[in-house]
Amino acid sequence: MEFEEYKKEIVEHFRESVRLFSNKGKKELELWTAQKFLNVLDVPYTDSELRQPKDEPPDVAFRDARFEIIELYDEDRRRHDEYRDKLKKAEIARDYSELLAVQTWDLELVSLTELLASAAERLERKKGKYSPDTKANLDIIIYVNLPKITIDDEDYVFSDQFPSNASLRRWRSVSLVFNRQIVCVAYASVRAPEFIQNASNRVIRK
Known about the structure:
The protein is of the alpha/beta class. Helix content is 39%, strand content 19%.
């Protein structure tokens, strides 16, 4: 791939991120997360099947699924400013090394179990926002937006050692979506949609 073509792709990626993480991009980010979840699970769908009801929850309705989208991120991050800065640097990059520098993060290695525990903690803080009946009918998708976190491939294995946390079992199902083509269905009750139940306690990579 020629440098200019590669640069164009990177610039477009950051431009899309700037748009998604603006206040106006919230609805679009929720829809994008639901689509990514379905794509990794190889669930065929048409765009018309994905609806965003005016009266939330859910954020996204799909057949018998009711997706509520929650983002897991470093809460001291100013994501919109961060991506806007990277976009500016990508636009003026003159060679591959400068583009690589824009995409490079100082990474911290964590295990999947630690990440699942962080997700459970994030859900715990949400418990007062919804009634018990509402929680029992929502399929949570947690979008893991932690660019400074990485997990070795061998750690992408769901472990039975992960605690059956009560904060997960309050919901109909709880899944994680990663920036890479990876989905982890951490919990699915017997009332969850069949395609989610079929992926329960698994990490699916595409």
